[in-house]
Amino acid sequence: MQIRELSIPDSFEITPKQFGDDRGVFLEWYRFDKLEEKVGHRLDLAQANTSVSKRGSVRGIHFADVPPSQAKYVTAVHGAVLDYIIDIRVGSPTYGQWDSVLLDDADRRAVYIAEGLGHCFVALTDNATVSYLVNSTFSPGREHGISPLDEEVGLVFPPEAGELLLSPKDTDAPTLAAAAAAGLLPTWDAARAYYATLNDRN
What we know:
CATH class: Mainly Beta
CATH superfamily: Jelly Rolls
Radius of gyration: 16 Å
Number of helices: 4
Distance between the termini: 22 Å
CATH topology: Jelly Rolls
Helix content: 10-25%
Largest sheet: 6 strands, antiparallel
Number of strands: 13
Shape: globular
Strand order of the largest sheet: 1-2-10-7-12-5
Order of helices and strands: EEEEHEEEEEEEEEHHH
Strand content: 35-45%
Structural class: alpha+beta
């Protein structure tokens, strides 16, 4: 597989090599050792999630308190989504910026999103099925959101998404500026210090 760091530090795009024949396709969509070489520590798996979304569905922007927050390894096993990684770490050189990766059942890419980063995606097809590997279990009291429609963040949703569908939780989420003012956002320094503790464990 090929792994490249995105424009947001501590996030990576993973492109697997696919082996096809008249029976279908085989690929390795996750390799802890290859990821560890890039990230500096392994992803200790604690939970696996799957979502199925209608075309136009937006999920996010979601993040969790650091530490421990929640690192994610995300892929689309059916259909297609555009996946967004948003740097919400106050003090980061790319604070407020984002990058995106097309996840679909053709190229079968995945993304790794480190603790403290914001995550969002929009479904480009009906029944878009996304699977996540995460390194900590869901903890409602530590989970937060930012509006995916925040003009300051400026996510660009492609026309193939059609009419956007958002949950009340996401439409009612604060803007990035409001979340920062409320002290909800992780900091660059805290996130980097936490990554260092994970690196030291290996």
